[in-house]
Write a sequence for this structure.
């Protein structure tokens, strides 16, 4: 049994605040450009707000929200039809349905990501902080670390690979 | 470029149109490529949202140059969407950041301790800084493993988990092998501990140290480091120190044990009075009788004794409550609960209980829930964000309607990382005439609200219900798990809304000291 709640905007706000990271992750996989993904997330929140009355509170919120997010991704695709750097509709479909299948698996991976971040050697941790927390630009990083652009991106690639491998190993030993 | 590099170029926004086309082709043709892409993109998305996760290095640095566009503002007009707007503006602040603590030690025992400034309780985590104890004794356990016993009046300064400065007073230090290297500063001397027990007395500019066990290296200005071994005393001024000047250990434990025994007696006589309150529906003291052969009885102590209202423990195990000698039930497994059945129909209620929450690991964490959720039935639980959540179910007004409306009241979040693992008093009062719900945490009001759905005079009923879980909902439905992860010690149910002063008294009289 699920508690029946009147569909007040407050409840939506609660649900949105609780799930905003999941929604962002979902959108980002389909539109891997941060600023665009954030825009789409806002549009999604608005769409959810407009249709909130129709939400069946006995059903889980996230799948419902993902459907709206997907529609917004498609809208964004149509609007920016000429941008070559967006996935075409058929690839979007494939990614979205694949993601649905592996959603639990992705959640599980993220739980180990924290552990793996801890295990990083200090220079790699610094790189995480510079790139993700401080949002330092490539130029700043190149300057500070005396790296060529190519080497910097290679290091970032290795960093992400390292984290990915670590998570995979943790999952395997989880049994 | 291989798949890995293409994905990375995409994530960094460095991809060229040709590379993008190649990446797309790979994703289209190969599910393994899609899987790899999804995993890496998801990981990247998470880092973008929560970069400081576990790196433990950053506070809340403000994000620099975000390309967030606010054209959606114009679309929102209605007043109700103000909250939603706040919501939309929010994505800039990662919310589910991993909790961090700047604590380096914890207060493990106190005896008549009177701290200057912020009061400290057992179990409190302390951050680096100055700590002044006016009187009494306090035992501080450093995260490095070192333990410090301080006697007031004393002033110490905690530098880190490995370093303390004593400005005045008597302290005694125990350093296990794992905390070797622990540093204690006193006027004119720095003591480096090599795994030992020693005492320090600081009086003005004079300090004296006595080693009880092991070895301490004393560094004094202008002199070579001196090794102090068991039984040796070093004083900065011409020795006027005797063994009486050093803080003895052991005595504290005896006094504490005596205290705890008194505390139990004090509580017993207080409860005897409370149980005569005619407004009680039931009072579960969570003190299990030694002659209960089944060990499952959760007795109702409200007078006159009504055996029908006694509770039955399922799964939950007896454990120590707020102090030694006081019992509590520990709820750990998903099936653990206390079954009760309360007849009657009421116009007001008060719930009051002592709870030690170990973790808020479910969406809803049960305190008291009626089976199912029929009109008039109250539910009391802790929401995952740490707020207390009281709700009561009623049929929506209007003819032919069978829709249920759930009047939900949330307090502000009160169960935080700091409140886990320690005893807190929770209470809520509800009156069906005014519709007012007041929620309390440790005797203080943390929520006061009348639901917009309130209609005066609708009765409150219980029927079969349970503490610490929600287990027997309607037939044929799988039920969500709402088991409490923690312990309950004392649960009172009144058919009247107690006043704030009365709730404060319940909190004061029941507090673990």
């Amino acid at each position: 049994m699920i508690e029946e709640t009147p569909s007040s905007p407050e409840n939506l706000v609660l649900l949105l605040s609780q799930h905003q990271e999941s929604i962002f992750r979902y959108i980002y996989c389909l539109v891997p450009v941060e600023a665009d993904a954030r825009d789409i997330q806002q549009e999604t929140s608005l769409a959810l707000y407009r249709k909130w009355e129709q939400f069946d509170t006995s059903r889980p919120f996230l799948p419902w929200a993902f459907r709206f997010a997907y529609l917004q991704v498609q809208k964004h695709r149509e609007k920016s039809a000429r941008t070559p750097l967006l996935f075409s509709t058929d690839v979007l479909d494939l990614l979205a349905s694949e993601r649905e299948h592996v959603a639990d698996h992705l959640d599980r991976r993220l739980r180990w990501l924290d552990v793996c971040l801890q295990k990083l050697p200090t220079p790699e941790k610094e790189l995480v902080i510079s790139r993700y927390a401080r949002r330092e630009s490539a130029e700043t990083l190149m300057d500070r670390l005396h790296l060529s652009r190519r080497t910097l991106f290679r290091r970032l690639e290795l960093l992400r690979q390292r984290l990915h491998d670590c998570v995979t190993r943790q999952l395997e030993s989880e049994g | 470029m291989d798949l890995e590099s293409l994905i990375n170029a995409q994530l960094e926004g460095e991809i060229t149109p040709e590379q993008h086309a190649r990446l797309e082709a790979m994703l289209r043709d190969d599910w393994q490529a899609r899987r790899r892409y999804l995993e890496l993109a998801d990981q990247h998305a998470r880092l973008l949202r929560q970069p400081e996760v576990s790196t433990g290095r950053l506070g809340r640095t403000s994000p620099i140059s975000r390309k967030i566009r606010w054209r959606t503002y114009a679309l929102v007009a209605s007043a109700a969407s103000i909250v939603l707007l706040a919501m939309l503006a929010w994505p800039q602040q990662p919310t589910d950041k991993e909790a961090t603590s700047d604590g380096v030690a914890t207060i493990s025992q106190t005896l008549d301790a009177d701290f200057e400034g912020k009061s400290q309780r057992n179990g409190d985590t302390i951050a680096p800084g100055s700590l002044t104890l006016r009187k009494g004794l306090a035992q501080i356990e450093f995260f490095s493993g070192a333990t410090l016993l301080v006697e007031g009046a004393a002033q110490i300064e905690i530098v880190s988990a490995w370093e303390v400065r004593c400005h005045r007073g008597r302290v005694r230090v125990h350093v296990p092998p794992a905390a070797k290297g622990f540093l204690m500063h006193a006027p004119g001397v720095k003591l480096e501990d090599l795994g030992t027990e020693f005492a320090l007395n600081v009086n003005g500019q004079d300090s004296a140290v006595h080693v009880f066990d092991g070895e301490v290296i004393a560094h004094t200005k202008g002199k070579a480091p001196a090794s102090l071994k068991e039984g040796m005393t070093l004083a900065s001024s011409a020795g006027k120190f005797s063994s009486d000047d050093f803080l003895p250990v052991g005595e504290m434990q005896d006094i504490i044990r005596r205290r705890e025994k008194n505390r139990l007696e004090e509580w017993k006589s207080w409860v005897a009075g409370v149980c005569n309150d005619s407004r009680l529906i039931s009072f579960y003291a969570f003190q299990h009788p030694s002659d209960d052969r089944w060990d499952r009885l959760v007795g109702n102590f409200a007078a006159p004794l009504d055996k029908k209202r006694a509770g039955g423990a399922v799964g939950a195990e007896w454990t120590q409550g707020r102090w030694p000698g006081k019992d509590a039930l520990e709820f750990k497994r998903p099936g653990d609960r206390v079954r009760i059945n309360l007849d009657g129909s009421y116009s007001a209620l008060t719930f009051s209980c002592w709870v030690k929450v170990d973790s808020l690991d479910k969406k809803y964490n049960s305190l008291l829930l009626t089976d199912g959720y029929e009109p008039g039935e109250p539910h009391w639980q802790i929401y995952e964000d740490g707020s207390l959540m009281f709700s009561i179910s009623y049929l929506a007004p209007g003819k032919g309607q069978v829709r249920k409306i759930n009047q939900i009241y949330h307090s502000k979040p009160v169960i935080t990382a700091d409140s886990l693992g320690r005893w807190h008093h929770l209470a809520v009062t509800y009156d069906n005439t005014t519709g007012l719900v007041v929620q309390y945490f440790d005797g203080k009001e943390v929520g006061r609200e009348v639901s917009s759905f309130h209609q005066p005079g609708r009765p409150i009923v219980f029927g079969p219900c349970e503490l610490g879980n929600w287990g027997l909902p309607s037939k044929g439905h799988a039920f969500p798990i709402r088991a409490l992860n923690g312990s309950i010690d004392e649960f009172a149910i009144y058919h009247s809304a107690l006043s704030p002063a009365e709730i404060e008294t319940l909190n004061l009289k029941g507090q673990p000291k």
Q: What stands out?
A: The helical segments of chain A are 9-30, 34-50, 61-79, 89-119, 122-133, 138-145, 149-174.
